[in-house]
From TrEMBL, chain A:
Domain of life (superkingdom): Bacteria
Protein known as: Copper transport protein
GO biological process annotation, one example: response to copper ion
DNA damage in keyword set: no
UniProt key word Mitochondrion: no
Subcellular location: Cell membrane
Pfam families in the cross-refs: CopC, CopD
Upper classification of the organism: Bacteria, Pseudomonadati, Pseudomonadota, Alphaproteobacteria, Hyphomicrobiales
Keywords: Cell membrane, Copper, Membrane, Metal-binding, Signal, Transmembrane, Transmembrane helix
CopC domain boundaries: 23-114
From TrEMBL, chain B:
UniProt keyword annotation of Signal present: yes
Keywords from the named record: Signal
Segments for region (Disordered): 153-172
Protein name: Uncharacterized protein YcnI
UniProt keyword annotation of Metal-binding present: no
Organism: Bradyrhizobium yuanmingense
Chain ranges of the YncI copper-binding domain: 21-168
CDD domains to which the protein is assigned, alphabetical: YcnI_like
Length: 520, 172
């Protein structure tokens, strides 16, 4: 028993140890994507909207040769890639794969040219087979967690018998192998490696270091506990409880929803959501099996289940609603984004499932006591529920590939990074076109820590068109960044940008750079 | 604007002895000697009368004694120096870091001077300019004369609100 308690504590600690924010997005590149430089840069810097872990970073030089002598270092939200000294003329491509805090890989590539642009193709890194494998393994994992662990819990706590645990047993086997496959596929995806690389340690090591990888391990542990709960008699009920807690934890540890702010609310919500799915869906297979048995025993079990299913479905709906609102933010995103579409389909299926459940609960269950024919109808209805649940798993597994609308940031066309030994200013201009633009100024010290300022002014001028410096006061936003909204940029051209930050009464840091506003 | 008229304009700006900035009367001083810093305040903040003048004492300037001024209260802020300085056989590691004159009112149409006695230690580098950042607080608004040009950045634009400076000469 002490061992179990220790394991359970470990599960719990592992799941909350990782600090996480959201799905990462690239916000700026230095040198700028698509720029032409006179000399080769020493370093390429990628800046993301949250801290990231570098996965595979590749460089293809102007002659089309892949170069592996780059040195990659990461600090917080920035990844610096040291370029080889002998970078030839032409267009070089840096393709990156990084792991965002929710455990999902972000891929992309940036290009810059030295001297003259040359013809090049960004390396295609879409591995369809790997995507299919990840999706399939995810569905298998859901089967193991919900049908498997949920089924075992039902057998131990509701039906008090091992009738109908064949399906959960198979689901657990599928789920355990899916957890292993998920872990390996995650590692391959992060490093951009072929299937054969599973024989090496690298993908596994990388995968385990991510929150998603740890979630797979917790899920596997939960399923192992469930298998143990099927065997031993004396501690089986405690083991079933631990397995259920593991289901909730593995879902609350990683993924888009669990890592969205406010995490204090989202993680417990995800935990409860997962737990209730297992309670409900796990019961279906054993229930269907029980209904083939003689009446009196089945009736008592169905009644017990009804007692717990009602509150579980209520919690499921409430937590699901809360999670959806945070992730989708605006109703139009339900149809305009892929994430929203998946959610819409899921909601449609859930409504069908709820309708069936209501039918079972309020019509068929009371009918059981009176009518023997009702037993067969109820069984068919439960089987239909199972099919819908499986469809929901298949749909939801697709979320792995879509960022939630919450994290989709509007495309910032222009970003500059001004650097001196005293300070680094990051300037984001959206939409970065002629007309009215919003400026976001992110001030940092030379070491990259946030720089506190009393006042910040933005001065813009376009000498080539005779536009004298125009000065605008920036306002400190709740996000900690300084904002200047609706700045009129009447012409395209090389605008001079000067930012003055008053850091104390007597000290002002001024940095200046140029901003190329493209012609419309 | 033609190139010639541009040049004339630059020359004119450079030649005008009383720019519309807060500046120091004595533009040159020898290190290792005392220096009487006279801050000349030619105007308020965009027409608003001046209520307070704050001067930050740069590192390497010690034994600061502000001159009292009728109608104004003078306050000093003391603190630790970054280094240690010899002063008549004593080692000084702290002293005046900021001087502020307040409580008076200098209308925009008038001119006034704010004076302090200082010692420029010989730890200062000769042939550089020493800057005294000044914050001018007015009835409405603040002017900060705190811009210090970066050494060697000759191409950079002339600041709008330069800090008053004094050219340091080597010990004779």
């Amino acid at each position: 028993m002490r061992l179990l308690a220790a394991l359970a504590t470990l599960l719990f600690a592992a799941s909350f140890a990782s600090g996480a924010l959201a799905h990462a997005a690239l916000i700026s590149v230095e040198p700028a994507n698509g720029s032409t430089l006179a000399t080769a840069p020493k370093v390429v810097e990628l800046r993301f909207n949250e801290p990231v872990t570098p996965g595979a970073i590749r460089l293809i030089d102007g002659t089309g040769r892949a170069r592996d002598e780059t040195r990659v270092s990461a600090s917080g939200d920035m990844i610096s890639i040291e370029m080889p000294a002998d970078l030839p003329e032409g267009t070089a491509v840096v393709s990156y794969r990084v792991v965002s805090q929710d455990g999902h890989p972000i891929v992309g590539s940036v290009m810059f040219s030295i001297g003259m642009p040359s013809e090049t193709k960004p390396s295609a890194s879409t591995d369809h087979w790997l995507g299919a494998l990840i999706w399939l393994a995810r569905v298998g994992l859901y089967l193991g967690l919900f049908v498997g662990v949920g089924g075992v819990w039902f057998a131990r706590w509701i039906s008090w018998s091992l009738t109908g645990v064949t399906v959960p047993r198979v689901a657990l086997a599928v789920g355990l192998s899916s957890a292993v496959v998920s872990l390996g596929a995650l590692g391959l995806d992060l490093l951009g490696l072929p299937l054969a690389a599973l024989a090496t340690a690298a993908p596994w090591k990388v995968a385990v270091a991510t929150s998603a990888g740890r979630a797979f391990l917790v899920a596997a542990a939960a399923m192992l506990f469930a298998l143990l709960a099927l065997r031993s008699a004396w501690s089986s009920r405690a083991l079933a409880i631990i397995a259920m807690v593991g289901v909730g934890l593995s879902l609350a540890m990683s993924g888009h929803a669990a890592t969205a702010p406010p995490r204090m609310m989202m993680r417990p919500a995800m935990f409860l959501h997962g737990l209730c799915v297992a309670l409900w869906i796990g019961a279906l297979a054993p229930l269907a099996a029980l209904l083939s048995k003689p009446m009196p025993a089945a009736l008592a079990v169905v009644k017990r289940f009804s007692g717990i299913a009602m509150p579980a479905v209520g919690v499921l709906a409430l937590t699901g609603l809360a999670l959806a609102i945070v992730q989708v933010e605006k109703a139009p995103a339900l149809v305009e984004t892929r994430y929203g579409l998946i959610l819409s389909i899921k909601l449609g299926l859930v409504l069908m499932l709820l309708a069936l459940a209501a039918l079972n609960r309020f019509r068929l269950t009371p009918a059981l006591a009176r009518d023997r024919g009702a037993q067969a109808i109820l069984k068919r209805s439960i089987l239909l529920e199972s099919v819908i649940a499986l469809a929901i798993f298949a749909v939801v597994a697709g979320w792995r590939f879509t960022p939630p609308p919450r994290t989709i940031i509007p495309e910032t066309l222009l970003a500059i990074h001004i650097h001196s030994d005293k300070a680094m200013f990051q300037v984001l201009v959206s939409p970065g076109k002629v007309g009215k633009d919003d400026f976001v100024l992110q001030l940092m010290t030379g070491e990259g820590t946030p720089l506190a300022a009393k006042e910040v002014t933005l001065t813009l001028s376009l000498p080539e068109r005779g536009i004298e410096p125009m000065e605008r006061e920036a306002l400190l936003g709740p996000d900690g960044y300084w904002h200047v909204r609706k700045v009129e940029l009447p012409f395209a051209g090389r605008w001079r940008v000067r930012i003055e930050a008053l850091v104390s009464d007597f000290e002002k840091i001024t940095l200046a750079d140029e901003l190329e506003v493209p012609p419309p | 604007m033609s190139k010639r008229s541009c040049l004339i304009l630059i020359a004119a700006v450079a030649a005008s002895p009383v720019a519309a900035h807060v500046s120091l009367e004595t533009k040159q001083a020898t290190i290792g000697a005392s220096y009487k810093a006279v801050f000349m305040v030619p105007h308020g903040c965009a027409g608003s009368p001046t209520l307070k003048i704050r001067v930050q004492i740069p590192e390497g300037v010690i034994a600061v004694k502000p001159m009292p001024k009728a109608g104004w209260t003078v306050d000093v802020v003391e603190g630790k120096y970054a280094g240690e300085y010899d002063y008549h056989g004593n080692k000084l590691s702290s002293g005046v870091k900021e001087v502020a004159w307040s409580g008076g009112k200098l209308p925009d149409k008038n001119y006034d001077e704010f004076i302090m006695q200082t010692v420029l230690t010989d730890k200062l580098k000769a042939n550089t300019t020493l800057y005294f950042p000044v914050v001018q607080e007015c009835e409405t608004g603040v002017r900060r004369w705190i811009e210090i040009p970066i050494e060697g950045a000759g191409h950079s634009h002339e600041g709008k609100s330069p800090a008053p400076g004094v050219k340091l000469l080597p010990k004779p």
